[in-house]
User: Fold Metal-dependent phosphohydrolase from Thermacetogenium phaeum.
Amino acid sequence: MRIAITDAREGMKVARDVFSKDGRVLLKAGSLLTESSIRYLKKQGVIAIEIEDRLLSGRKPVRPNSDPVWQEIISEAEHTVRDIWNSVSQGRGIHISRIERIVDSIIQELLQREITYPKLVDIRALDDYTFTHSVNVCVLSLIMGIAKGYSEDELFELGIGSLLHDLGKIIIPPEILGKADTLSAEEMGIVRKHPAYGFSLLVQEPEININSSLIAYQHHERYDGSGYPRGLKGDEIHEYAQIVAIVDVYDALTTDRIYRNRIQPYEAVEMLIAMSGRGFNPDYVKLFLKNVEIYPVGSIVELNNGSLGIITGVDKNMPVRPQILLLKWEGERLVPTGDEVDLMKEVTLFITRVIKLDKELLEKVLGNS
Assistant:
């Protein structure tokens, strides 16, 4: 479990060696933190460490915390997309160097940590959808690119294009983009112009590779030729755009929108599987399912029978049917019951929702002091 050094407490056990910026081991795995060692790590510029997750091992849980490194990177990515959107809408250009820096940061963090993480940005307001969605799509696409074995140059092209894949939406009037009712044929025609416009914006930038620009142009094309703007099919669609098309739909389905509520991840996965071979390249759908955790280990979930539990294991071949340690209330705390459920075997049970708690309430629920 990764926590900010500011959240480290005496008695916590270090799960991985802590290194300095020049590669020296500052603290070995297995060490128990002391007040002096925490001060030392802070002085050395350490901002985050890995500690043992005591909740999953059945012991008293450590203080939960969102990953500070991801928080910083993802927050900057969202601000970057917002600023570029505003800049382009006002007739100014794209700040290429800023985009390159943030994409490189995301790539390096993913390569370093070798993680699969489904949704790095929670939507804070419906008005923020375009910006947060762009960041989610970028990260998910890069996870797939890493799994596919792309070089860093290829990941960079994929990251740039996926982060800017919806830039063409600046031509869509706000009253259409934010409309809660069904779009008219005329309004839908306007919406369908955004891939071509996004492509025209990106292709004008000499520092943006054509492969990145094609993501904006082709991410609404479909494997069977039913997409737009050109009705391309199969390998006529650039492979980057085929990847982005899948994660674009998945993230959109699992996010609240003005005109509909989000659906559960397992429902979105079922839709992707149903579209495999028709809307999407089946090989890339399989790649998505095997490398993007729908329910990450450590997620607290509710089952259709009302039980609460925490995800303890995930089968990559069937990510919507994880292993779950059941929890029960003891006063104001959630504690393990000792019973585990394997949804691969318990076919009548399924996850109805992920329990999202703010930091203060989560600490209270898990009984951490």
In short: The chain has 13 helices and nine strands. Confidence is low (pLDDT under 50) at residues 55-66, 116-127. The longest strand covers residues 333-342.
